[in-house]
Hints:
With 310 residues, this protein is an all-alpha fold.
Amino acid sequence: MSLGFASQDSIPANLRMYQRKLQPENKAKLLGCWGRAMRFLPAVVIIILLLIYLMSFNLSPFQQLNPQESIHQSHHKIKLIAASATMNPVDRISGQRCDNNNFQIPQLLAAFQACVTKDEDISLESYLEGWTELQKIINALGTVFGFISEEVNSKMEIIIQHRKGVHGKEYATIKSMIDYELKSDLVNNSRLHSDGLVSGCRTLLRLHRALQWLQLFLDKLRYDSQSNSISDICADSYQRTLAKHHSWLIQKAAGFAFLALPSRAKFLHMLCVQDNKDTRVKLWNSVNAIERVYNITQHMYAQHGMLELP
């Protein structure tokens, strides 16, 4: 009994031949569409992983070790960290005022000039003051750089708490910190201080590496022409410095972040910096002061074979 559907035998021969010819063509089209879709798969995976990575920063490593401590209990010299951490200049450019919560080149220069002691050591108090200003630069790059800002903030908090602890006097300078932690065998990655803090030497090494990135970025910024974008400057500085210390995932995340950077004019406006000769002179002096601090720190770490600490 027929149910109303044509059997294969009832279909004319020429139509059957057309069906057989059409099937490979359809398969080829499907494979073509699938191939085009697969080309976008790596980018989709990277974006998903990036979102997962960024969401993992709800609590910094320091906050996990010390839930009772907060940034508001930090040293009075770096009380502006909280204000700078909440800034989101990219999302609210309009109506911005230039006040003490914004980036200040004179404060940056003064802090890093004060870092170097008479015996070529580095004062950690002044070092953290300088980083308070540098963190504002990172914040001005936008929320997409939150993963670097969070890392810097957590490392600063650890150094602050070391300075406030029972062995605070040992954390007056980088040299005194290195001598104390090596003598006490606290640089080993598997050990924590009795107060639950990780090694100050390892912590500061992360800031030291990031310092080189920002020093090169500022150096290029004062020399660049209007045709060079902030994205290009920042990406090139990153590839020459921090990239070699980051995993593939973080490098890809940074690559996406560079694409979202504002124009040079907007970036300088968000930092409350005028693009003129006076600014370039101040940046030049600041870059030189930062470079000197970096080189002294680099030499001390190299002397003790600690530049490649994991």
